[in-house]
């Protein structure tokens, strides 16, 4: 019984393979026929290899101004290594540029572009910054990304700084006038 099953399976597989292979051969024959028609339309001989249909290169001797250095370098190479310069026959020489293009700078700009211009002293005092703070005055100051409430403990008018005690944790900080605002 097992031998019969084995034989039946083998014949079924063989028939399926033959059927598939026959179909693939038919498809390949159809493709070859279409390729032959395309080759005939393009004027290529049927049966020519892909290397024969590649564009031909022609050997171009170097200009007279470059022949002398080429001969000197050729003497250093072993004679078994040929030196050839290949140029495609369709290629046209590239136009030369008359003006030198500025090089693009990559990365971070130089320090000259990043620094702020120097502050010019003005004859009139600016109204945005108060001239004096009083000890015990409640203010708000900026530090980092935050803004905090504090009391003024000391004022240095000469250095334009204020010593503050933060209300939340009594931390003492020294801040310039422009970072401090009355509360």
Automatic annotation (TrEMBL):
It comes from the Bacteria. Residues 47-130 are annotated as: Disordered. Residues 115-130 have a biased composition (Low complexity). This is PspA. It comes from Myxococcus xanthus.
